[in-house]
Every structure is written in C-alpha cells, then in structure tokens.
Amino acid sequence: MQKKITILVGSLRRESIARKIAKNVIKLFPDGYEAKIYEIGDLPLYNADYDNIKETYAPLPESYTRFREQIKSSAGVLFVIPENNRLVPAVIKNAIDIGSKPNDDVAWTKTPTGIISHSVGAMGGYSSQKTLRLALSYFNMPITGQPEVFLGKSARYFDKDSEEINNTDTLKFLQKYINVFVELVEKNPKE
C-alpha cells in the first residue's frame, strides 16, 4: 500500500516558485510513496463558529472536513513555503488553524512533517520556516531536524519558461532532505 504524503504549498499563484519546487520534490520520493499537492486556496478563513454546532448560521464547510480528513489519512505532510513579510504565508496559517480543531480531534497530531522554504532574497525563507516550526510545535508532530532547507535567491533555480530545477547540487540536496523526511515517516507511523 502506498504511503500518502500531502504537500501544502504556501503560495496560491499558479506559477509560483514554491509550486515549482514542490513539483520537483514529488519526483524525489521513493517507490511506495505517493506525494501530491493538496490545494488549500479554497479553504474559508478559519472561524471557530464553524465548529460550534450551536451556531446554526455558520455550518461547517465541506472543505474543512475534506482537508482535515486528508491530513489525518496522510503518512506525512511536507510544507513548501515562501516567505511573506518575514512570516509564514497566510494561506498556510489558515490551514494550520483549520487542522487544529476541534480540540478533541486535531488533524495534525503525530503527523510527521517536513518544511522546505524559499525566498527570492538571500535568506531562503528562514523567518517563515521558523514561525511555521513554532506553530507546529504545539501539535506533537515529529519534524525533520537537519538538514534544514532554505533556498535563497530561488528564482535562479529555474530557467525561463521551465519548471525543472536547473542546479544538480540543489537537486542532490533536496534528495538528501527527502530521504531524511521519508526516514522520519518510517520511524513515526500514524496509528
């Protein structure tokens, strides 16, 4: 049986660098793994009233239920995120909030997690990755340690009109990271 890896991309732009990186990383997973991007752009902003059955004006969106079930059924989650104003992108923060409820059934709990961040500047999304790690630390999620992936000046990894990473050393580094992530998933099976 294939192990499902959910990839959450922190940019809604169709041609975003984060999306291109994610598409390249999908190819690096070994046999027995099925890694796919799960679209989170249609998730309404989190509202606690959606989870309160007494609030009839705000029924639980079906997209919330689908997303929560996706995370629960995944062997692991990989975030591929840019940096927005030194923080995690809003679409990722919204997804984290949605998966964190209801309190007695948190979708994130014990889900092995990896993070690849990038920025068009030199720091490679360092601040966004660190804020994401802080948020995820609350959910008892096994998370990769070393190596960390901060892809600085990320536009240079793609030739004009290409979605393929053009740097062999970067691809080797990403393969090493995916190997570490897969090892984390193998050592932390969800119940």
UniProtKB/TrEMBL annotation:
Coiled coil: none annotated. SUPFAM superfamilies: Flavoproteins (SSF52218). It comes from Peptostreptococcus canis. This is NAD(P)H-dependent oxidoreductase. Residues 4-154 form the NADPH-dependent FMN reductase-like domain. InterPro entries: Flavoprotein-like_sf, FMN_Rdtase-like_dom, NAD(P)H-dep_reductase.
